[in-house]
Amino acid sequence: LLSPPLGPASLVTGHARSIRLSLVQGDCRFAREAHGDPLADEKAVWETAEANLPIRQGYVLATDNGRAEVEFENGAMAFLNANTVLEFYDLSLNDGARTTRLVLRQGTASFYVTPAGEDYFSVTGGDFTVEAKGKGSFRINNFDDGSNVEVLSGQAAVLHKKEVTQLSKGQSLSMKAGEDAITSAGLSS
């Protein structure tokens, strides 16, 4: 009874993250663990995903003929279109800083990001990784024939091999599968 009350900083220590599936429409499934590519993993056990499912590191979420929405504890959101597979590769917490590394294995997903302090948020889709350093939103399409990213608000950095391309609202970057050439739109030279 004499211990001090827990403040907000005390609630976000350790390695627990509070991420949940906030909306499910149509067919949505999840696997708790996949080895390598979840689409090719014959040992992956796919279960029906329902709203309020807690999402943990290593989970894979897949929509068939449906859509899903994932809510992160800091207000960030992920919106998955139909036929999309998203892997929650790294959901760690280090000294209060949240590290979120996602892999868009296939499909289309939009992300609204609200990082604070030392938080890190990235999504890998195809041959590039999108890093969001500040508040903003972006959409990634990742299909067999190629991938693209479009920044809807704010800014994002796109990493491909050892090169970084900064994108702002209205700018996009595309890559065809099997090619190293990057096509950008809305960027001034």
Summarize the structure.
The protein is mainly β and 189 residues long.
Order of helices and strands: HEEEEEEEEEEEEEE
Q: Which structural class do you get from the secondary structure elements?
A: mainly beta
Gross morphology is globular
- Main sheet overview: 14 strands, mixed
Helix percentage range: under 10%
Low-confidence stretches: 1-14
Oligomer class? single chain
Count the beta strands.
14
Q: Count every helix, treating DSSP H or I runs of 4 or more residues as helices.
A: 1
* Averaged pLDDT: 86
The radius of gyration over CA amounts to 17 Å
Distance between the termini: 64 Å
Task: Describe the protein's architecture and organization.
This protein is mostly beta strands and 189 residues long. The chain contains one helix and 14 strands; from the N terminus they run H-E-E-E-E-E-E-E-E-E-E-E-E-E-E. The protein has one helix at residues 8-11; strands spanning 20-31, 46-48, 60-71, 77-80, 84-94, 97-113, 120-125, 128-132, 136-143, 146-153, 155-160, 163-168, 172-176, 182-185. Strands 1, 2, 3, 4, 5, 6, 7, 8, 9, 10, 11, 12, 13 and 14 form a 14-stranded mixed beta sheet that branches.
List keywords for this structure.
189 residues, mainly beta, 14-stranded mixed β-sheet, 14 strands, 2% helix, 57% strand, disordered N terminus
Show the helix and strand layout.
Layout: H1 8-11, E1 20-31, E2 46-48, E3 60-71, E4 77-80, E5 84-94, E6 97-113, E7 120-125, E8 128-132, E9 136-143, E10 146-153, E11 155-160, E12 163-168, E13 172-176, E14 182-185
Parallel strand pairs: 6-7
Antiparallel strand pairs: 1-2, 1-3, 3-4, 3-5, 4-6, 5-6, 6-9, 7-8, 8-11, 9-10, 10-13, 11-12, 13-14
